[in-house]
Design a protein that fits this description.
The relative contact order is 0.16. The protein has helices at 2-19, 23-46, 57-72, 78-100, 105-125, 127-130, 147-173, 176-186, 188-193, 198-224, 229-232, 235-248, 255-274, 279-294, 298-322, and strands at residues 136-137, 226-227. The longest helix is centred in the middle third of the chain and has 27 residues, at 147-173. By secondary structure, it is mostly helical. The chain starts with a helix and ends with a helix.
Amino acid sequence: MRIVSSLLLVAAALAYPWLVPNYYLVYAGVLTVMYAAMATSWNILGGLSGYVSLGHSAFFGLGAYGTGLLVARLGWPWPLALGVSTAGVALFAALVGVAAVRVRGASFVIVTIALVSAMNLLAQGWRSLTGGSIALQVPSPFAGLHRGQTHLLFYHLFLALLAAVLLAWWLISRSRYGSGLRAIREDEDKAESLGVPTAAYKVVALALSALFVALAGGLYALWFGSLDPIFVFSIVFGASMVLMSLLGGRRHLLGPLLGALIVAPAGEYFLIALGETQIHLTATGVLLVLVVLFMPEGILARRWRRDQNRRAGQVLRGSDGGA
């Protein structure tokens, strides 16, 4: 059943842009798949190691600006610009991680918030390089396509990224390294006493997570074509990744994907219904608080427990009948 469900999910994802009636819904699909890829990327750190970062939009913004600047200012081919930018952000995340993973809990969250705030101020202040609030304009690598066709193309590019991130999470979770990350999540002091190199494991998890988020940022720059530091370096943007992972279930492979399928379309709907106000941002914050308070393990965890309880009940009833 899992194989059949997975195949149906893949078929539905591939068929989606051909089934919707207009290109706006394709655009919404691109956003949803992009968020799903980023939430799953965040989950490499947040789900496996248990370290919650609210500043992953820093890596998204650096990937976007790195790719955009190399294409717009230096005229690099977009695949080369995307690869160099992504590698640079991963290296930067590893360097930041060497210092950041020395703290835990709320202190780590504060460090990540400070990181994204610093990147936001830098991007807004360095106007000669980034364009500041005027926004950096990135030329489209597919100038021959109209906007709808561009949405269609980037939908499949983000879908390929999502598949790569899901595969990476699945492989890591079943490896010895993944077992070490889960040990850190459950009891870091005990894991360290058992010989797990906790600091190195956390730095690698942060770098891998940042790499995929930066790749999403670079693709976003090429797709959207205009980079506003207020958006790409937004704490709310980073919090959305956390919300999607928590809502779906951050300890499960498809948890962030499920959360993105709920939160991203809902956010786009409220943005259209309420206009350019802060109400939809407030709704995101309120939903995050509600999820943390009442459903911290997510939808998939609740379903898993329900299935386990039902199976246990069936076993007990069978034993009583046998007796």
